[in-house]
Amino acid sequence: MCGIAGIRSKNGKNLIVKRLYEMLEEIQHRGPDGAGITINNDILYGRTVGDIESTSSNVDAAIGHVRLAIVGGTCGSQPFQSCDKKFTVEHNGEIYNYKELKSKLLEKNHKFITDTDSEVIVHLLEENYKKSDNIIGAIKKTIQELDGYYAIVIKDKTGKVYLVRDKIGVRQLYYGENKKFLAFASEKKALWKLDINDNIRTLSPGHYVVLTSKGFSDELPYWENNLDKLPVKYEQMEDAVEVYYDVLLQSMRKRTQDLQRVGIVFSGGIDSVIIAALAKKLVPEVICYTSGFKNSSDVLFARKVAEQLGLTLKINELTDSDVEKMLPQLSNIIETNNLLQLEVAIPIYASISLASKDKIRVMFSGQGADELFAGYPWYSKIVDSAGYKKLREYMTKDLFLLYKESLEREDKISMSNAIELRVPYLDVDVIETAMQIDLKLNLIDGKDDMGKRVHRELAKQKLHIPDNIAYRSKEAAQHGSGMHDVIRRLAIAHGYTEDNITSEYIEQLKKREKLGSSQRYGYLYGDALNWNDEPNVQKYVDAIAIKRKK
C-alpha cells in the first residue's frame, strides 16, 4: 500500500517539483517507509519526501510516490523503471501472483532490483509492449495477467501518463485540474493542496485515463464487465457451499502469504467471523479488533463470539467525548461530511487505530459479503415486490458502487494509520462464483429475514461455527456500535434540533449525492427511522467538520 501523486503545469514552469513535494507531504501517512519522485526521466529516492533533494526547476511535470512496506522489506521504494527505460511505473495495491509472474520474467532476462510485488508490473508491461508496440494493448494485456488490486500510474518516454484502476475499485485515484495545473493523487487532500477543489473526479473501476500536455482524456474501459450476465450454475446448497469455500479459501491464502500476524476488523457478525476463522487456519497470530459503546450490541456480541470461538479480541470502548473529538478529524481523513459515512467510519477507525498501536500492518475486512450473498434486510422485500431478477440488478449495482460507498472510505481510514486493509470477499473469483449461485439459495423467499444462507452454511459446514453465531441477525455498523444514537445526541446537545432546520437547508441536502444503498433506496423497503436522513444531525456534522485546506 502506498500513496501516489502527479502534477503537470498548464503554462510552463510553476515550481512543479516544490508543488509535488507539497502533495506528497499531504499524503505521507500513506507511505511512511520510503519516497520517490520522477522528474523528466530521472528518479530520486529518499527515506521521506523531505529527504529527496532535487535541483531541477526547469520542468513542467513530475510524479511521486510514498511507500508502506508490506512485501519486499525496506528495499522497494518506487517509482520503478523498465529495463529499456521506456516506462516508469508507480503502484498502490497488492499483486498476489507476483512470484509466478516474476519467475517467468526472469526467464526472459528482466533484471529486478527489489523483491516487491509492485516491480513485476513495469517488467510485464515492457514485455507486453515488445510483442505489440502498442501501449494501450500492452496495458490491457498486463492488467489481464495481474491477480490483485491496484491503482497504477504509467509514464512513457514521450511524457504521456496513463492512470489505471482495478476492476472492483478497491484502490482509488482522483484527478482534476484548475487554471494552473493538471494533477492526480491517491487522496483528494493532495489536490486540495493545489487549490483543485471543484473539478475532482474519481477514476472509475476497470477504466484508464490518459494525461498529456493538453489535459486528461475521456475515461475508457479496459475490460468488458459481464459479471452480471454469468449463468446460474449452482442450484443445490451442497454444491454452492463447496465451490464457495474453495474460492474463498484460495482468496485468503493469496492475501495471507508470507504474513506472520494480521488484524481483523471484527464486529461479531458472520462476515468478520468467517474471515477470522479462516485467518486463524493460515496465519500464526490473528488479533480481532472491535469498537463501540460499552453496552452496544456489537461490543457485547463480539466479546461473546470471541470467547466461544477462541479468538483473541481487543476492544476500543468509546464515550460521547471520544466521538465528539473524533468527528472533525475523521471527516478530513475520509474527505466527506456525509453523516452515514461518518457513522460507519467511527467504529472502523477506532478499531484500526487500536490495531495500529499493536504495530499491525495488514488487516482484513468483510466488505462485499452483503452485496454478493443478499445480506441487507431490504433485499428480501425487493424479492417480495419485484422478484429475484430485479434483486440481482440491485445487488449488482450495489456491488459496483462499493468503490465510492465503502472502499475508498476504508482505504483512507486504514492508511491514516499506516495499515493495509484487504478484502477477501471481493476477489474476482469469489465474485464470479457468487454471481453463479442461485439467489433462491441465499434468500428463500420474500419473507426471509436472514439472507446470506450459502455464506452462513459455509460457516457451519466448513468452519464448524455454531448456529447461534452463523444465523445471528446483525444490526448495521452504525446501530450495532451505537454511533447513530450518540451523534444524534451530540447534535441535540449542541442545539441542532429539527426546529432550527430551514427549508433552504433541506433543499440543499436533496442535491447531495446519496452514498450507500440504505440512503439510495433501502429506506423505501425498511424502517424509515433507521435509514432516513436527519437534517439536524447532518447540519451539526457540517458545522464541526474540518474545512478543506486551500
Short note summarizing the structure:
By secondary structure, the protein is of the alpha+beta class.
Helices, strands, pairings?
Blueprint: E1 2-9, H1 16-26, E2 35-39, E3 42-46, E4 61-67, E5 80-81, E6 87-95, H2 98-107, H3 119-132, H4 135-145, E7 148-156, E8 161-165, E9 174-177, E10 181-185, H5 188-192, E11 200-202, E12 207-212, E13 215-216, E14 220-221, H6 237-256, E15 261-265, H7 270-282, E16 285-293, H8 297-309, E17 312-318, H9 320-334, H10 339-357, E18 362-364, H11 369-373, H12 377-386, H13 388-399, H14 402-416, E19 420-422, H15 428-435, H16 439-442, H17 453-463, H18 467-470, H19 477-480, H20 483-493, H21 503-510, H22 517-520, H23 528-531, H24 535-544
Parallel strand pairs: 15-16, 15-18, 16-17, 18-19
Antiparallel strand pairs: 1-4, 1-10, 2-3, 2-4, 5-6, 6-7, 7-8, 8-12, 9-10, 9-11, 12-13, 12-14
Helix pairs in contact: 2-3, 3-4, 6-7, 6-15, 6-17, 7-17, 9-10, 10-14, 12-13, 20-24
